[in-house]
Design goal:
Layout: H1 3-44, H2 50-81
Helix pairs in contact: 1-2
Amino acid sequence: MGLKEGLDKLGDEVKDKLHDAKDTLSEVGHRGAADAEHAKREVAGDQMTVGENLGSMWNEGKNRVEAEVDVTKRDARNLTKE
């Protein structure tokens, strides 16, 4: 392996680590937002209207899906290395 190939490989590894870190932070943010929506419904209880409750459930579900997308992106990136 030449110097250029070695540097390219190192650059790709660094780029992958940065993307992994970004996806991990994004995942944590989405999970936190989902947990907050869930807690909001538990605390508010019957004080929330049906529409507010449904909106909160939608937001929780959306954030959980987005967190799983971040996990999938990381997993896919790791699979391409093997």
